[in-house]
Amino acid sequence: MDIDKKKKIEQYSKKVDLIFQDCEIKPLVDKILNMKPNEIINTITDSGLKGRGGAGFPTGLKWKGAADTFSDIKYVICNADEGEPGTFKDRQILQDKAMKVFIGMTACAKAIGAKEGFIYIRGEYNYLLPKLEKELGEFNRILKDKGFDFNIKIRSGSGAYVCGEETSLIESMEGKRGEPRNKPPFPVKQGYLNMPTVVNNVETLVYTVMVLRDGPDEFKKLGTKDSRGAKVFCVSGDAAIQGIFELELGMPLQEFVDLFGDGHTKAVQVGGSSGHCVPYKKFGETVIGFEGIPTGGSMMLFNSSRSMYHVLHNYLEFFEEESCGQCVPCRVGTQQLLKGIEAVKKGEKPASYLNELIKLAETMRVSAKCGLGQSVSNPFISIVDNFREEIIF
Q: Could you tell me the residue range of the domain that residue 338 belongs to?
């Protein structure tokens, strides 16, 4: 391990210590329960916090949408179906700071008027259930003692990647096959059991807690105008130092590579298999954030020893396997992209055929029903455009 790099990373991490920071539970719960619903929503809105699951939708706006929808029954769902390859932050947050997740759900419940909440946890994380159930029992008792009518339960998923998409997750919770719904209506209007529902990522909920504790201005000291606050990054691949690190948003990718790279980094896959592959020649001009390339957390580094053809082939196999098959663009498109690059690599198709495959990927981006099919174009086009020679030869 590079000692100098480790010291620099520790210095960066000390500037940002929100997600895994210890806090007193009961005083924080008291503060939130004493706030008015519109006060909670306005505080979150003023902070500029956007969803940390990858989509980046403004959190305050989502909560306001559910709050403004008239219904006697509303729900809060924590999306802990962490299925994106290279992402393992939510698991660590639930393991170390589950109480802060529960508080975030409670804040949302107070803001929108919900009485029931669910944590939808990835099936592979079921080993966490005994610990989570114990902590959740303690937390539910705290809420009961304080007279707040809100109860949280845990639901376990079955490992389907597509259930990370909020409407597929809701279908799964209702006992149906995990498939995306048509939107609109959006979950804040008609979600779980057709009732107004807020679905937030694990990390997002913890940040709402820190915003409500410290105030929006403190949160806005971190990040940029378009990317407020910080982000938890999962660093993997050919990295000098791997693991989970909380850093400010708006960081230039070159700075990130200088910190974590092994000295031979030729590409970084920002956002997991559904994200963009950035080549070394674009490190300097790329910003990690909503004004540049947003990420759900996964940062995979590839050095000069890696074949980008094999990387792309691996991603396409993954998408082909995980497609729910509901819409033609995704079901057929993923298969054809995979067969296409294999044919080019074998010389069965000319190099120019890659241009046709790019057109197919662009069509999938605008015609696929959900984020799975739409996002296939991200790794495909970025790898083909920047590493075409590795696919042809």
A: 308-392
H or E element: which one contains 232?
A: strand 230-237
pLDDT in tens, 57-93: 999 999 999 999 999 999 999 999 998 999 999 999 9
Does one domain contain both 273 and 341?
Answer: no
The amino acid at 354: L
Using alpha carbons, list the distances in angstroms from residue 130 to 76, 101, 104, 135: 22, 16, 21, 9
Q: Report d(CA 231, CA 267) in Å as an integer.
A: 21
**pTM for this one?**
0.94
In this structure, what CATH number is given to the domain that contains residue 256? 3.10.20.600
What are 191-194's contacts with CB under 8 Å, separation 24+? 191/75, 191/77, 191/166, 191/167, 192/75, 192/77, 192/118, 193/73, 193/75
Cα distance between residue 270 and residue 387, in whole Å: 16
Last residue of a domain, one of 250, 269, 303: 303
Q: Identify the CATH number of the domain in which residue 342 sits.
A: 1.20.1440.230
The strand pair at 298-303 and 230-237 is best described as: parallel
